[in-house]
Amino acid sequence: xxxxxxxxxxxxxxxxxxxxxxxxxxxxxxxxxxxxxxxxxxxxxxxxxxxxxxxxxxxxxxxxxxxxxxxxxxxxxxxxxxxxxxxxxxxxxxxxxxxxxxxxxxxxxxxxxxxxxxxxxxxxxxxxxxxxxxxxxxxxxxxxxxxxxxxxxxxxxxxxxxxxxxxxxxxxxxxxxxxxxxxxxxxxxxxxxxxxxxxxxxxxxxxxxxxxxxxxxxxxxxxxxxxxxxxxxxxxxxxxxxxxxxxxxxxxxxxxxxxxxxxxxxxxxxxxxxxxxxxxxxxxxxxxxxxxxxxxxxxxxxxxxxxxxxxxxxxxxxxxxxxxxxxxxxxxxxxxxxxxxxxxxxxxxxxxxxxxxxxxxxxxxxxxxxxxxxxxxxxxxxxxxxxxxxxxxxxxxxxxxxxxxxxxxxxxxxxxxxxxxxxxxxxxxxxxxxxxxxxxxxxxxxxxxxxxxxxxxxxxxxxxxxxxxx
Length: 470
Description:
This protein is about 40% helix and about 15% strand. It is an alpha/beta fold. The chain has two domains: about 5-205, Rossmann fold (3-Layer(aba) Sandwich); about 210-385, Rossmann fold (3-Layer(aba) Sandwich). The strands form two sheets. The protein has a seven-stranded parallel sheet, with helices on both faces. It has a seven-stranded parallel sheet with strand order 10-11-9-12-13-8-14, sandwiched between helices. α5 links the parallel β3 and β4 (about 125). Mean pLDDT is about 80; it is low at about 375-385 and about 390-470.
């Protein structure tokens, strides 16, 4: 079998761009699909999360896409979530050469997206909702689209996007190439395949439930009032971790509770603005927070390497949701741990799900603090007890904690500095002063100065009420 991208017919300029990133040998799904994609064949691919699907469909698109006219892209990639769409765009830009790649999704303003479309986008990555909005506003036209990729097609169906996907495909060129990728090929995906693909080649990689086979599955039975403490103990044992809740409110509430147990965490869900979601994902990927608390909508949208632990804080709705959540760890051949917190009245439902997933014999009951012993990763063991600690004081001390964490590198390699350092305590006033000044300048507001006795300076207070001179 081919061992290099050039053996698959990939243009040399793309091969060189991949080599600069240290990517020289294709994954299995890439070996099986890139040549078909370059030949213009329709592809129906099934591959697990983290198997390298983005390069599998991205390389043929970058090689075949031509320069586009304003508002008329040549290639289109549909993704179910904002995070996945953004990550696909970022990946393609690293090897797309002269071809312009841009992403559109909801939750942000229309201005930059309209401007980019007017300037011309060759490869457009989009979420269905925002794409239809822009089409309705006549900001773009899909009649020139010659290549279409539908990524995470099963997730599209789960989120109710199939009607929109069909409406979008109906507007593209009739002689287009259609590439479809999915973790599972269920009824909805099969219908999409029959209606919109012409003699597609079927390419499958791995088992149908690969994420279940790769991870170590564990559980613990706890009362509802004890679940937050159990989750905190699990994260203290091994992190970075992604914790899944059913609702947005539950996610935000859990973040607050975790902080009381000295766990740094942020939430990500559909109720957050795109800037908030990107900030939370960036902080998590850089190791600035130990846990990312997410809803099911993010189960397919979070693609972060090195996630050591997935916690099912709320029991998944069904076995498919369990697979999608658990797929955030044990990616690309790496090991990972899945930890389910089960309430006493959920035991029967959990047992049925375990039986359907085929893990009844392998799943084990374990104390959360013992998770470290199951991990084969030395980085995970180094994380035990080394997470950023929350101070008992609020306000400026918490900001100081953030400043301390910035000095650490990516998660898994560095331990945050100890909070017991007397030198840091001596410099706390400097840190508070520096942070206060920074927040004032960013908000364009001047706050009253404080005298040593703790009372605000009267002149400064009056000055605070005056308009700023520029």
